[in-house]
Design brief:
Radius of gyration of chain A: 20 Å
Protein name (chains A, B): Transcriptional regulator, TetR family
CATH class of the largest domain in chain A: Mainly Alpha
GO molecular function (chains A, B): DNA-binding transcription factor activity; transcription cis-regulatory region binding
Pfam families (chains A, B): TetR_N
Largest sheet of chain A: none
Keywords (chains A, B): DNA-binding, Transcription, Transcription regulation
InterPro entries (chains A, B): Homeodomain-like_sf (IPR009057), HTH-type_TetR-like_transc_reg (IPR050109), HTH_TetR (IPR001647)
Oligomer: homodimer
């Protein structure tokens, strides 16, 4: 095995074990020494891959965002309309965050300035580039949805459509991140201790109204969401970390 | 001074210095030993107040959510319509998170299960109760807005109006949390390095469409947002930590 290949394999192993540790113990008690002891590598080896805990956390997030890309590609390949792809994407994000809050925390931590600003520039940049790629894919789908399924934009020129699509793209992302964060709070858990149905309802009402505000005029939005929910499940099952089976690398 | 009073003062001092430390150094490197050295209290004293870093973090969040309550009460007292109070609340949350991302990180961390589940029950519960109180205040305003400014709900009975108001309340909270988290990401910062105007535009488009989807029919939503923005500033200025002047306890 080449030296470089060996290094990459080792890095992957450290990341996978770190995700598993984070998921068991939370991030506030994460110590590089625990990672060393778990992986049996020396502290020097760990630090030769990751300069800081922040750097390691961004690397973990990167691994998980690559899983989101698998979901995303699976959605893009579905033989359905652009608006259904948008809804399926939102449903995937929701279902993943409700089932794997431990993993989504890692994603959300990597968005925080006190984390990504302290990671190495190269690692932070890799994560940004991956987000740029995903946002670009999504933007294409949104432009198609504006042209075919959203009303009120007939007068817009190409630039204006793209700007609107960019706002919708980032609004969707924000809504996914925010609805799942607040749904995982202690407050939500006190309010509906075993309320998966109620949570789904809350997700549906807010998402369908968000799209309605952007001009989605659909007589039976619930039926569309129900159809997309089945598709979302199939797309999630194609991943390693998010799949229900979770034959994941950590086991 | 009574013993109890002394204890409370000391607890407050530890919390305020911890917020300042978190804001300077981030949370991954937070060590109880740093808090002890900063406050000149022994580790035993620190631990007699906070069982764990998670407990301390929830206590810090509690202090900041009390500041949100000040903002909130100031908004509730404004002589404006319910829908304008809703928009002003969203604008306050947005402006605070854009100016004080370090503080909002603490709020967002406290929503994560790996944090609040590891805090003491009492502290986690205090935070939940405060969120219950704020959500209840907001819900009353939303019910009024549904009755006076949102269209399409004339057929709903009281229970249905309250359920809708609850979804809107939590959707608003989620949208605030999510839009500000994603706007602070490295990706957003790469995309618009000095784009405060562009960020404001992104916030406005997503918020106004969210409310439009809930039935807000307003001919000139931009003018309403502009009016509410000025009001938001005045309400924020009534706090210690979020005010621009920030004569805050940490200085």
């Amino acid at each position: 095995m080449q030296r470089r290949e060996k290094r990459e394999l080792r890095e992957r192993e450290i990341i996978e074990k770190s995700i598993a540790l984070l998921s068991q113990r939370g991030f506030l008690d994460l110590r590089m020494a625990d990672i060393a002891s778990e992986t049996k590598y020396s502290m020097g080896t760990i630090y030769s891959h990751f300069e800081s805990k922040e750097d390691l956390l961004v690397a973990c997030a990167l691994t998980l965002v690559l899983e989101h890309r698998i979901v995303f590609n699976a959605i893009a390949d579905q033989p359905v309309s652009a608006i259904e792809k948008i809804i399926t994407t939102a449903l995937c994000s929701w279902q993943i965050s409700m089932r794997h809050p431990d993993l989504i925390e890692i994603d959300n931590l990597s968005l925080m300035p006190s984390v990504w600003r302290r990671a190495t520039k190269q690692r932070a940049n890799e994560l940004n580039q991956l987000h740029v790629e995903l946002a670009g894919m999504f933007l294409g789908i949104v432009v198609e949805a504006i042209e075919t399924s959203l009303s009120g934009y007939e007068q817009l020129d190409r630039n204006q459509v793209e700007q609107l699509a960019s706002h919708l793209t980032h609004g969707m992302w924000g809504l996914c991140v925010g609805l799942s964060s607040t749904a995982q709070s202690g407050y939500a858990s006190t309010l509906c201790p075993d309320g998966a149905d109620e949570s789904d309802r809350y997700f549906y009402t807010n998402y369908s109204n968000f799209l309605k505000g952007y001009g989605w005029q659909e007589e039976n939005p619930e039926a569309v969401f129900a159809r997309c929910r089945r598709m979302a499940q199939q797309c999630i099952d194609q991943t390693t970390w998010f799949s229900d089976a979770r034959q994941g690398p950590q086991s």
